Automatic annotation (TrEMBL), chain A:
InterPro entries linked: ATPase_NBD (IPR043129), Gcp-like_dom (IPR000905), KAE1/TsaD (IPR017861), Peptidase_M22_CS (IPR017860), TsaD (IPR022450)
CDD domains: ASKHA_NBD_TsaD_bac (cd24133)
E.C. number(s) listed in UniProt: 2.3.1.234
Gene behind this protein: tsaD
UniProt name for this protein: tRNA N6-adenosine threonylcarbamoyltransferase
Pfam families linked: TsaD
Lineage of the organism: Bacteria, Bacillati, Bacillota, Bacilli, Lactobacillales
Major location (coarse): cytoplasm
TrEMBL record, chain B:
NCBIfam families (UniProt xref): T6A_YeaZ (TIGR03725)
Keyword match Nucleotide-binding: no
This protein's record includes keyword Transferase: yes
Highest taxon above the source species: Bacteria
GO molecular function, one term: transferase activity
Gene assigned in the entry: tsaB
InterPro entries in UniProt: ATPase_NBD (IPR043129), Gcp-like_dom (IPR000905), T6A_TsaB (IPR022496)
Span of domain Gcp-like: 23-151
Name listed for the protein in its UniProt record: tRNA (Adenosine(37)-N6)-threonylcarbamoyltransferase complex dimerization subunit type 1 TsaB
Origin organism lineage: Bacteria, Bacillati, Bacillota, Bacilli, Lactobacillales
Sorted UniProt keywords: Transferase
GO biological process, one term: tRNA threonylcarbamoyladenosine modification
Length: 339, 240
């Protein structure tokens, strides 16, 4: 029986300060998440300098809570892991400095984790991953299709050419008078409304795996502005349903196009938008409709947004490979899979 | 007392280990290196040069600002995490006071951090029995306002420290007889930081230790300017 591995993990790439203790990459002993949403709601979106300041306020509290809740001490730890990109540079730096300091102070190996890889490996807490598997990454910063061919082996198949899907939700949310983050509310309204506006489904005809949401967003905004000008009252639930209908068509079209090219046994969805109920339902229906023998994996709601547990899951793979970082680790705000 | 001191509040980076008043090792970099990359390797090297480990250190001393927001955050995050994780003592020193330590003790010392557009972070310090006493609180100010406030002093007694070329020009116009130490000649010195820290009370609650920015973010400033009020006691961050 092999010895257990305990990794203290840090995540601070955007507006959540999170520290977790993860056992063997599979078991969450603690996963403390301090969210700044309330703060940024004052400004209608994440303000980087405000986010960085909050991370400094929270970081040691989160470390101590994570250790307490996991009932472990520094002596029990085997490594320290941290998100080093992509994300807001000022935010990333706080987690990186704290993680490097803990690694240095306790002479622990340091593991630098790609935030996107973390989102994908949230699935590790749900199921036994079987390679290769397909991953659909949907968040405020990213919309990607990634084929994972082995532990920590990522191949980006498609990416967004403009806005990320979560970003599009926030932008049309603003037009509907919904404060950031708008995804949850739009999802709820979409469940009530009907897809009556026939917004464009960008690039679904094109034979590639890339996404585009800016045309949809503009069509949405133009529709609302035009109605405002002629003093016409539009049904907001129908607007939400029409927007979400187009989003789901685009996401599902590209995802199943990718799955046709790369038949796999698992479809793993990750990132903030993976909490979307409409998306969960739609992908399940499509799999059934196509009679695919494929497991659909969504993270539990708590692990859809940014959290350090997922960083610990990915870090375990790197730990097993001996993939360690040095104390001169810096943030890489535009990090992606393809180096 | 064994002190590890470091400063990243401006472009230079300075790390020192000082034991019972004696500087055992000292790393200075004036190059435009990235503090986030170099600070921990520099701390490690400084300790190794001193033949000490981090566990031997009794007190961490850090410049807590004002200065470059990112720079100050880097040092403060390392300092508070190090202190917390190893249960050490922590002292935060004003980065302006640290600059004042580069001045002539007989003078009225005006340390500056250029904050662009003819603004600066500034303080006024005087030396009294080997201690620096703040006679005007560190604050963010236009140079014009600062000059007004300094008119009460004898011009030849004034010594401006860490003046960028632009600030130097402004000072010379206003106080041609004042002494000016340029930014190249007033590097923050972590050995002096250690010495200043010895005279100060350690931080009581490490979690609450944050940089002294002396300025709200633009977004918060605008938000309050619109008439929003939070009575200063709203918690904007919550554990979920
Ligand atoms: Zn994320």
């Amino acid at each position: 029986m092999e010895k257990d591995t305990l990794i203290l993990s840090f995540e601070s790439s955007c507006d959540e300060t999170s520290v977790a203790v993860i056992k063997n990459g599979k078991e969450i002993l603690s996963n403390i998440i301090a969210t700044q949403i309330k703060s940024h709601q004052r400004f209608g979106g994440v303000v980087p300098e405000v986010a960085s300041r909050h991370h400094v306020e929270e970081v040691t509290k989160c470390i101590n809570l994570a250790l307490d809740e996991a009932k472990v001490d520094y002596d029990d730890l085997d490594a320290v892991a941290v998100t080093y990109g992509p994300g807001l540079v000022g935010s990333l730096l706080i987690g990186i400095m704290a993680a490097k300091t803990v690694a240095f102070a306790h002479d622990l190996p340091l593991i630098k984790v790609n935030h996107l890889a973390g989102h994908i490996y949230s699935a590790n807490f749900v199921t036994e991953l079987q390679y290769p598997f397909m991953s659909l990454l949907v968040s405020g910063g990213h919309t990607e299709l990634v084929l994972v061919t082995g532990p920590g082996e990522f191949h980006t198949l498609g990416d967004t050419r403009d806005d990320a899907v979560g970003e599009a939700y926030d932008k049309i949310g603003r037009v509907l008078g919904i404060n950031y983050p708008a995804g949850k509310k739009v999802d709820q309204m979409a469940a009530i409304g009907h897809d009556t506006f026939n917004f464009p489904r960008a690039m679904v005809q094109e034979d590639n795996l890339d996404f585009s949401f800016s045309g949809l967003k503009s069509a949405f905004i133009n529709t609302v502005h035009h109605a405002d000008q002629v003093h016409e009252e539009l049904n907001k639930d129908d607007l939400a349903a029409s927007f979400q209908g187009a989003v789901l068509d685009i996401l599902s079209n590209k995802t199943f196009r990718a799955l046709k090219q790369h038949p796999v046994k698992q479809l793993v969805v990750g990132g903030g938008v993976s909490a979307n109920q409409g998306l969960r339902k739609r992908l399940a229906e499509e799999i059934e409709k196509r009679h695919l023998d494929m497991e659909l994996v969504f993270p539990p709601l708590r692990l859809c947004g940014d959290n350090a547990a997922m960083i610990g899951a990915m870090a375990q793979i790197q730990y097993d490979k001996g993939d360690f970082a040095d104390l001169d680790l810096n943030a890489d705000p535009s990090l992606d899979f393809d180096m | 007392m064994k002190i590890l001191a470091f400063d990243t509040s401006n472009k230079p980076l300075s790390v020192a280990v000082v034991v019972d008043g004696e500087v055992l090792a000292h790393v200075e970099s004036t190059e435009k290196k990235t503090h986030s990359i170099s600070i921990l390797p520099d701390i490690k090297n400084t300790l190794e040069e001193s033949n000490l480990t981090i566990n031997d250190i009794d007190l961490i001393a850090v410049s807590k600002g004002p200065g470059s927001y990112t720079g100050v955050r880097i040092a403060v995050t390392v300092a508070k995490t190090l202190t917390d994780t190893l249960s050490k003592k922590l002292v935060g020193v004003s980065s302006l006071e640290l600059l004042a330590a580069n001045g002539d003790k007989a003078h009225i010392l005006v340390p500056l951090m250029d904050a662009r557009n003819d603004n600066a972070f500034a303080g006024v310090y005087q030396n009294s029995r080997d201690n620096f006493v703040s006679i005007m609180q560190d604050h963010h100010t236009s140079m014009e306002k600062l000059f007004d406030a300094l008119k009460q002093y004898d011009e030849s007694q004034l010594e401006f420290i860490n003046a960028t070329p632009r600030l130097q020009e402004l000072i010379q116009n206003q106080f041609p007889n004042a002494k000016i130490i340029t930014s190249e000649n007033s590097l923050p010195d972590a050995a002096k930081l250690a010495k200043l820290a010895e005279t100060k009370k350690p931080v009581e609650n490490i979690d609450d230790f944050v940089p002294t920015y002396l300025r709200l973010t633009q977004a918060e400033h605008d938000w309050y300017a619109k008439g929003h009020k939070d009575n200063g006691n709203v918690s904007y961050v919550e554990e979920v």
